[in-house]
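Extended Data, panel c. Modelled sequence:
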Amino acid sequence: MDSMSGCNTRTMKFRDPIVENVCDRFLRRSDVGYEKYGRTLHDERTGKHKDLLGYLTDIQEELMDAILYIQTAREEMFEQMEEQRMNNIMRNGNNGEHYENTPDSEY
């Protein structure tokens, strides 16, 4: 443990840059939480700042947020795909009037 910062240090080797990026993001996320709350998750748990129901509520709320982010990203993706399709139609010199009106996909 680094006595100046109170942090453990460790040298890690990564064979996969994706895994390295995820680990870096976890560390940055931990720093944000520490700056916001002034304690680590370990401190929170061992200090009994939150009970099991509190953690389960946090998980549920985070997963609900994740579903909303997924839906928002899906809608953005479909809009971009439709815009690209229309740009391709216009670039080919027609206005797309001869295309059937097909129902929008469920997104």
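The chain has two domains: 11-49, 51-97. This feature is highlighted in the accompanying rendering.
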